[in-house]
Amino acid sequence: MKCNEVPQFTSLQTAASSFKSDDKLHLRELCADSARCAGLVATHRADGRKIILDYSRQQVTGETMELLFDLADKVGLIEKRNDMRRGVKINITEGRSVLHQALRMPKGYDYGKIFPDGTAVLKEVHAVRDKIQDFSERVRSGAFKGATGKELKNFVCIGIGGSQLGPEFVNEALRADPSASAASEGRTLRFLANVDPVDFSLCTSDLDPEETLIVVISKTFTTAETMLNARTARKWMLNGVKADAKEVVSKHVIAVSTAIDKCKAFGIDEDNIFGFWEWVGGRFSVCSAVGIVPLSLQYSYEVMSDFLDGAHDIDEHFYEAPLRENIPVILGLLGVWNSTFMGYETRALLPYSQALKRFPAHIQQVDMESNGKRVAIDGSILPFQAGEINFGEPGTNGQHSFYQLMHQGRVVPADFIGFMESQTPVKHDGEVVSNHDELMSNFFAQPDALAYGKTLTDLMQEGVKEEIRPHKVFSGNRPSSSMLMTKLDAFAVGQLLAIYEHRTAVQGFIWGINSFDQWGVELGKVLATQVRSQLNASRTNQAQVQGFNSSTSALLEAFLAHGK
Hints:
alpha/beta, 5-stranded parallel β-sheet, 6-stranded mixed β-sheet, 23 helices
């Protein structure tokens, strides 16, 4: 059943109209109801820690949430969720299962009772994980050395999209964690994604090739940008390491790929190729060898096992917790409410943690590549917009960037994420609060400021000059959720990742779309191939520009005329 064909959809449209027009449903009034607020909180406990999701500053009541849960029931959310877990090929346009949750299942997990092929899948997953553990420990211990006998302590990870954004987010999140930081001492991990030669230069200019290991990540080993960067890195390595060329590549380049023959043709030792499966989408691949190989080299397999355990913890919560206590489900339903019914086209992800500075970029890809669709899973055109424009920055940096718009411009629903403990606590004598408490003061204040705003009456009472008052009015009624977690370590990073992966899936299940293909990415690649051929022909044979529209032709001619 399509979501717009059930009566709950109409009821939610009516409810949304009321929230847009009834002053009694302003968040200033709703937040004064302590019973309502207490009912709009979900808590998850695991491993001596907890996650508190407070969504009382969303434009919902208990009745609204019940309509959303009823909508989920009518469109078969539970069945769709369970189909994903059972290995049903829910990615119908590519004929694939969606099993990234299997990547974080521990050894001994009885996946066979859920999915007939589950035991075999998990055996393959742990075979790769064991191989990663063995290789990363040999590199880190110095047992596996470079071609000139030097230990490898610099790791350059070449990949793009999900091969870069996910691992980079995890890397940044762990850099200041005490355990991970200690494990990475003396090592450097860099990410090379952009084919712009400036990126390569900045990535490698201060590295010693003799102490560097290149990790090429490409499922097919054909991704244009990745392979050009890989060839550039191989040339840099061969120029910088004075040893037999074959030995240099076999000792300094490894791959995460399913294209074994292509990797071997590149010069990579087959023992140093780490595979993954077609049921792992790129944007969901950080828990596969795509992320675990480079991150284990940098932080140790032990630390990354904690990360995988955290993701698995949320997987179990997502599949087992009742919907009304299920954090990814609640976040997904709120996303549908704000986008489809309230008409908000954007969403901000605001982690009050500098360590999560790359988290919004990763979730931007996870969400927008998954749910930016125009048709339902049956191919019919959607009668509503699916997907939101996602963006974000760490607090408090974002407050001095785009919060002005959030407070007095467009309404942007927001997720605030904060932590009870700092990765690097600092408290100076004579300061009123610690640095972390200063940060968290803003975490607690901003959602209230967005919800309550400031009225003309408030300004009059404060004695603000009449001509300035209009500029200082804040309408408020701007929705947000607050997620408070105990601390940010590898386990919590895994939890956060899984929460937002599953939130994305929930919204796609409600909307009735395929969240696991990405045909919109492909068209530009096809057109770029045509441009690439033209540039080659014009550079080498002075061929005339042809086959493009007049605008593109004029720009190409100007580009080529420059001659550099």
